Structure formats: C-alpha cells, structure tokens
Amino acid sequence: MWKNCQDLEEYNQAAMSAAFYLCLLFWYLQTNAVGAELKPPENLTMITLNTNYQLSWDWDQSSSAVNFTTQYVSKYQLRSKKKSPIWSTACQNTSSRSCDLTQFNLYYLGIYVLRVEANVNGHVSGWVKKEFCPDKDAALGPPSKVALLPAGSDLEVVISDPLTSTNNSMRENYPDLYYHILYWERSIDTQAIGTQTLRSRANIVTLPKLKAWTWYCVSVQSHDDFYNKKSSFTSPHCMQTEGATPWWQIFGYFVLSLVICFLVMLVSIYSFFWCYKTIKATLFPAVQLPFQYLCDLTGSDFPRLLTPDSDSELSCDKVTVCPESPVLKIHIPPPEALPAPPSGLEPDSSGRHSRQDSSGSGDSGVYSTGGSSSLRQPNSSHSSTGAKVSGQGPFDLEQVKMQDMAPGLETQLVNADEGIVDMCV
Question: What is the CATH number of domain 42-137?
C-alpha cells in the first residue's frame, strides 16, 4: 500500500518515463535495422567508346520502388583542404540502373570520382564510389569509314579517323594514332588467301604488288601504344584491281560501238521516212474526197453537174481567171467647142462619127487614152458603118468596156479618121 498520494504520483511518473524510453529505443533499433537492410549498388562499371561514357551498376534487392542518384567530381577537388568538393549530379532519382555521362563533356585527360546511392521510400543507402580516367579507361574505336579506290593494278585504302561524340577526330586525343591494315586475296569460295598486314599513320594508303583483275578484301584496326589500346577490325571491304586492257577486248568495244552507231542511224532514217510518209498521206491523200462541182460544157447553154468519176478534163473548157478590167468614162465636149474642120473635107465629116471594124474584133471605133467609154455623136444621117446617130443636142454618155488600157492617162489628141478630136478623161 502506498503511504500517501505523493508516492503514488511519483510512481506513475517513473512508469511513464520508462515507457517513453522503451518506445524511443524501439524506434532507434527499427531505423538501424532498415538502414542496415538497404545496401548500396554494386559492381560499378564504365562502358566507353572514344568519348562516349556510360556508368552501370547492379542491384540485388527485391524492392521495385528503388531510385538511384549519380554524381561526379574531379579528383583534385577531393584533395583540396581549403574547401569542400562540389559534387555535380548527373542522374537523379532514376529507376534505370545506368547513367549516361557523355553529355557532360568530361575532360579526356582528367581524373574523376563517380558515386551512386539507392533510395527506397525515403530510406537511402550509402554511397558507392568509382574512379574514372577517360584517357586510361576509355576504349578506342575503329575507323569511322574505310573506302577502296582503284589505282591501276593496285588499290588505295582511304581511312577516316575515329570520331568523338561531337564528330571531331580522335587524333586530338591520340596524336600517335596509327592503323593496322589487313588485306588478302579473295578466292571464288570467298576464302582468304595470302593474308598480309601493313602499318601506317596516313589516312590514304596504297596496297602494293597486287595482281591485275583480282579481288582483294581489306579490314582496318586503330592502335595507340601509350596505353596499348586496340580497336576492333572494321568489316571487310572488297574490290577488284585493274590492269592493261587486252587487245581482244579493245577490238570488241570497237565493233560494238560500230554496231550501235549503225543501229542508231538506221532507226533515225526509218523514223524520218515514216514521219515524211505520214505527213504526206495526211496533207495529200491518194483518195480524193467526194466533192461535186458545176462545169460549163463546150457548146452547151447550161452547166452540168459532175462527180469526181466524170471525165471533167474532156467535158469542160479550161477557165482562166483574170482581174476585172477598169471602166473609164470619156466626156465628149459639145460641137461648138470643137475646132473647125480642115478644108477639103466632105460636108458630113464635120460631125463626129464612130468607126467599127466589120470583122467584129470588138473595137468600138473611138480611140481614147483612158480605156473603154461611150461618146455622144452629133446629128448625122448615117455613120460610116451604117449606125444611126441621135439628133442635135448634147451628146449621150455611154460606157464601153475596153481591155488592156493603161490607167492614169491624161487628156491627149486622138486621130480619128479625117479629123482630130479633143477627148477629156
């Protein structure tokens, strides 16, 4: 039994303190157990080629909610006692078990320290570290490109240097870089015959003493002797060598060229004549179209309708198309304006008269400088041809068609039988 209430209160306080310390001890022990179970990543490995770097590691725990953080720092910063090193984070809280360091352009001759930690639901593991020197640890890659070119009976090998991640030559990092060239003769069954090697620092190498018209294959490997680095060989490149062309091959080419020229000329001539015949048959067809036309037959008063089958050349006269003759008007002045006739003429010769040719030659009997016309004659009993003439008064104007008269003539004197007459055009 408790002596008083004060003793009971002290007992309760001591019990509560003991319970608190027991809980605190239990939490501490549990935290240490979890931390002990979360181990850091293992087997850090660098996968490199020229200036491409990738850090990878292993994780043996069964937890799937794990994340990793990767950091790096220059080694000389760790040796400095004046200031603490500054770690650069390359990959943070990533579930991948690798981290690409290529994009950070690590100095090729520098030395770096890399570290990785694991994180599971807020519980982190310890850091695991690895030292990395690109110049020493990075692998050297093969040539980026190899090409073969014919050089007479030999072959030229054109080699392109290995490239960095920024497409620069690796010779910037390996000044003494050279190549091992492996070449061999390829047989019919693609087997290598007489393998030979050649060492050269040049990018263009001529393979000597090769057989003409023979297939050869080439493979190249990069080398550097400072850390004894060797790349893998490139895939084989094959090409046939050349040589002097034999006489039968030259003759064959000559004959072939002649045959080709002959065929080209033959096709050209045939095409020309075919085009000519086609155009001629189109523009001038052998079969006339079935036209019908009228023809004025000789000795007939009515035209006749003919077809292409009719003998039009025998039935029709030839027709000549001539331009229309100009028609000239001749003005005859009144009698009082005419000059007096010369003495010795007959009384009826004072008047005008027209003379016509009895042979029917078509001459009107009036001579004019302007062409065909009709004239008015004074009152007379009869003309020399027996034609009646109108009475006294002004002359009538008649139009007479005349051919082959020169245009543009001016007024001139015309000798009409016994008298001279003025004629105005």
Answer: 2.60.40.10
